[in-house]
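Task card 7
Instruction: Convert sequence to structure tokens.
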Amino acid sequence: MNIVGLPESEPERVAVLMDKLGQRRYVLILDDVWKKFSLADVGIPKPTSSNGSKLVLTSRLIEVCRSMDCKVVKVPPLSNEESMNLFLKHAGRGVLKVPSLKEILDNVVKECDGLPLAVAVIAGSMKGIYNVEEWRNALRELRDHVRSVKGTDVEIYERLKFSFDRLGDLKIQSCFLYCSLYPEDYIIPRKELIEYWIDEEFLGNGSRQELHDKGHTILNRLENNCLLEKVGRDIVKMHDVMRDTALYIKGSGSRFKVQSGIGLKELPSKQEWGEDLEKVSFMVNNVSEIPPHLSPNCEVLSTLLLQKNESLQRISESFFQHMHRLSILDLSYTNVKQLPTSVSNLEKLKALVLRRCYNLRYVPSLEKLEALRKLDLNRTAIEKVPKGLEMLSNLTYLNLCAESLKELPVAILPRLSCLQCLMLYVESSRIRMNGFDATRLTKLERFEGRFTELIDFNAYTKSIQCQLLTSYLLVMAPLEAKFNVKQRIKGINCVYRFKLLNVDSDKGRQKAMMLASGLQGAESVCLISKDRTILEVSGDSEMGPTKIAANWKKRGIEVQLVDERWDPTSLPMKYVILSGCPIGREDPAELPSDVRTLKIFGCHNIRSLSDMPFFQQTNELGFCSIHDCRGIESVIDLSSPSQSCTPFENLELLWLENLENLHVLVKLAEASVVSTLSSQSIPAIFSHLKSFYIEGCSNMKQLFPFDLVHDLQNLENLIVRGCGQIEEIIGPKEEEDNHKGNGTQAPTKFSLPKLKELELTCLPELKSICSSNREMVCNSLRKIKVRDCTKLKRMPLYLPLFQDTHQSAPSAHPFERIRICPKEWWESVEWDYPNAKEVLRPWLNSY
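Output:
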């Protein structure tokens, strides 16, 4: 039965479901039921012997099963043999090689009492341990845990607490307990969690990189011990029973109060808070206001998490009045417009997180908050920096990436000498960085900022050559210059997170998922928030988020982009943008030696990248794009004897756009441009290149000389668009040019073994992909796109499909699609393989 198409309104849905289920025999399984409910109220006809239907529900509470008039069937625990097999799966079978451990191992497994989660967690805590004394001690501790309590749930918690106790380290235990502050079954980003641990000082002191390394090490240990679940590469989850165990552990002593993700519309009354609370989490709820009468007496409260209460607009002045020891305050993703002035008196505050409070315009004076180490104002609406910012001498993390910010007073940054992370809104022309002030921030590990004068930019980049910035985005652009920080390019995976605005039903969410899955290049689609309102799309999508949102709106799904990031594995954040500035030989721009991404916009006095000192030495550049630079004649000039290295030997992505005077990619001979290269004298120019994109370069006639093909063995994406004069993609060998017209020969094959996508669009003069006596073998090709290339008469491609003499179904092949325009071109073009058109027809689409 398809339940996706049910009506969105509850009364209609109940009626339709009741009608559909009433017309058939059904088996319905309801998992993890916690309280009694009426079947009729949700549209389920009562199963009877006459209608032959069955209802199965699972619950941890036998009272629920009885109250629902169910026949109670207790799920038996695992047998000893099943328990042992599961234990060895998680602890490793190496323990069996120690004969003296056999009896102890048997007893430890018996103490797990056949509970699968307890078996897995306890086994994880003993993984890699082969010492008899340690196993004997573990058995003794486990027995002490279990025999000191009574009651089914408590006995389970105590068995799991055994693994918690075996962590040994108080800070690691604190890291584990912290995860229980998130809602049940919540998807937790690893980096976000580690940032909280840093704020709480669980990880000690050190550089940001050292602390993140410690955090990942702890997360790996918690995962290996089965205390956390690894959901994906960058996210974890806490099993609901493990979360209950953590809250059970925090039920004594300094306590947690956790009511996260349960749909709260107002905070608990003052009497419900309790004076002994240490950490309080009301994150991911629907609280709209904190009223004046609510002023909890929480003198020992250190952490208050209110993020993702998106309806929250007002916080009363009295709310923070008795929270003198508050250390962590997170109000991110709320709708507050201003913070109460009482925040100014939270003198113990170490982290104030206000990111993506899109309407926040006012933050009171921070002058007294000398303990503050983190201030995050990313994507807020502030126009001025908070008063007293210059007094925060202990600040290590400052995010002022707010588009509305009008000014950053020059006297502030030099006084923040402890900063490890500084993020400014680089697309703003109003925030100017003084390079010499920036050089005084010697502890920076992550920096995002814009310079408007080349002297400032060079002063800063020279100063960091001996520093180890792990992440940076440096922009050199005068006030009037234009550039695009997050411009889309083939071959780079992006992750977009959209908030579903007009969707409140499973039917609507299913429709949104289907639209997202239909995006070209989308690799994964999932709903990541507890309330299933955040849709994450990752992959190499051809459309940016604005176009995606507009396209979906036409189809009835309204979304708002809440996050956008590049896949860090494909694009390390060591990133420089140069725009609208002189960077040629007379005024060279000094680039950091470890820059991985370089984008150049509208720099007209540069003839070749070789004019820059950076390209006269070996470097780590992985991505390079050049846009709208009128002076560029060649990408690299190797004609000078001093140019002895190959500056693109690590390059993976090259993007060239609107370079009207570009003639060749590589210039060799002095004072002339040559179209052939010697593979012996110029080795490995593009040996790591994966994606090549060229558009609007109107003076290019030949893209690659044939002698460069041996360097393209890693090429995966080749996109050529709007180059009006281009005639050849791959030129002939010199001897082939010299012997033109000497009779026909059988084509000689050459290979681009990793090429997955070939696009040729709007190339009116294109006559050949390669010379007539060459055939291009493309064993990995998945996509072909040819549009408005009417002079192209031959397709010299040889594909694995042509080897399939049995003509398997299209679904059996990894090939994806061919898109062509006009249709008449497809009918007239010739393929070297006789039946190519017939073989490829199942994948053919015309515009």
